[in-house]
């Protein structure tokens, strides 16, 4: 009978601490205002949008101009103070060479520290749990960088700095080349026919239904990319990547995070993670996968001719129709390597590992040692190299 009381006591403590944290983090009054600009992007020019902190939504527009709507969110001890802080924001438009620049101007000469409380329901920093309406947990973070030639710092999850940020809604005309640099906060882009580049020092990104080339860069944040008809290049210093239905070459890098997804049908697929698992299915083209620490699982492969997989310490597994593979190298420092296929590739096999088990048809010129195995499979026209420092090898 004591457990319900204990839980109730803990819950009450959590609510009180959450309420206290909420009271510290939230300003007494919040004022919002909108700024709007219609921007023409001449043929052959590009559009660049810069913002310090906030949520950015990018989508297809109706006309020939880009429509920018900025929602300024400011806090203060009273409504007059919040309004005065909001009035310091400017939405400037200028032209530099062949680039139309839309810049959200912040009062960095008066304030070099900002407090960002995400207002969008999918913002990456709005984590933790909610108990009786209070947000508890989610962590604290800060990012420092130069903005308007001034070193500034943006805090999330604490009450340091002035409570000021700007959410952007960007409606784009088809065909315009676009760069969006949102230093802190989530970026969502969907239903576009544009070459698109997204940058963030700290923030998640989600891109869905894009016809055009895509480049993404985030110092820290997860990325979700789906239904892209064009080449993609994605980089995040720390975060997971989810990739689905990419009709174009794919190159992704994460310093620390998992890479998941499938239906990558481009000519080249190149995946790198310093620490994390790689799990993908329905792949084609040439594959290159590197992970410093993590497992690699590639399934439902077809029409793959060239494969390179390096796992510093992790298992490697390939399955599907591997008959088209003519050049593959699979290496793990300390992990098992498994290949499963109905029709083996016609290659000259060279395998090293602890326990080697090869059950493929069409083997000839077999040489088997304590930690090595060599053979020709079928015509032996290709090359297959498999090595693991302290793991087993299984071919089925």
Automatic annotation (TrEMBL):
Q: Where is the signal peptide?
A: 1-25
**Record keywords, A-Z:** Signal
Task: State the source organism's domain of life.
Answer: Bacteria
Ranges for domain DUF4097: 231-394
Any Pfam family hit = DUF4097
Gene3D superfamilies in the cross-refs: 2.160.20.120
Record region (Disordered): 377-396
What InterPro entries does this protein map onto?
A: Toastrack_DUF4097 (IPR025164)
Q: Which PANTHER family match?
A: PROTEIN FAM185A, PTHR34094
Q: What is this protein called?
A: DUF4097 domain-containing protein
């Amino acid at each position: 009978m004591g457990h319900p009381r204990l839980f109730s006591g803990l819950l009450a403590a959590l609510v009180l601490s959450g309420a206290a944290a909420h009271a510290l983090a939230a300003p007494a009054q919040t004022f919002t205002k909108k700024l709007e600009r219609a921007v023409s992007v001449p043929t052959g020019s590009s559009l660049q949008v810069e913002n310090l902190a906030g949520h950015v939504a990018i989508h297809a527009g109706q006309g020939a101009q880009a429509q920018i709507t900025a929602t300024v969110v400011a806090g203060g001890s009273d409504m007059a103070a919040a309004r005065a802080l909001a009035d310091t924001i400017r939405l400037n438009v200028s032209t530099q060479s062949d680039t139309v620049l839309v810049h959200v101007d912040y009062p960095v000469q008066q304030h070099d520290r900002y407090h960002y409380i995400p207002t969008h329901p999918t913002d990456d920093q709005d984590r933790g749990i909610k108990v009786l309406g209070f947000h508890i947990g989610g962590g604290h973070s800060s990012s420092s960088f130069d903005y308007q030639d001034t070193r500034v710092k943006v805090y999330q999850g604490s009450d340091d700095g002035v409570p000021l940020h700007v959410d952007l809604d960007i409606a784009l005309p088809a065909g315009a080349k676009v760069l969006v640099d949102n230093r802190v906060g989530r970026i969502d882009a969907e239903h576009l026919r544009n070459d698109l580049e997204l940058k963030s020092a700290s923030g998640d990104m989600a891109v869905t239904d894009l016809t055009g080339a895509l480049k993404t860069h985030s110092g820290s944040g997860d990325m979700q990319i789906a239904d892209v008809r064009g080449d993609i290049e994605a980089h995040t210093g720390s975060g997971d990547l989810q990739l689905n239905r990419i009709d174009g070459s794919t190159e992704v890098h994460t310093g620390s995070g998992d890479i998941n997804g499938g239906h990558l049908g481009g000519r080249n697929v190149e995946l790198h993670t310093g620490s994390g698992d790689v799990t993908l299915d329905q792949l084609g083209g040439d594959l290159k996968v590197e992970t410093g620490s993590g497992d690699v699982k590639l399934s439902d492969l077809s029409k793959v001719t060239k494969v390179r997989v390096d796992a510093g310490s992790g298992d490697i597994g390939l399955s599907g129709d591997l008959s088209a593979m003519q050049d593959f190298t699979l290496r793990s420092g300390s992990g098992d390597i498994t290949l499963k296929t109905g029709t083996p590739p016609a290659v000259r096999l060279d395998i090293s590992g602890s326990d080697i088990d090869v059950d493929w048809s069409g083997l000839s010129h077999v040489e088997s040692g304590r930690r090595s195995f060599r053979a020709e499979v079928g015509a032996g026209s290709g090359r297959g190299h498999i090595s693991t420092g302290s793991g087993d090898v299984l071919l089925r």
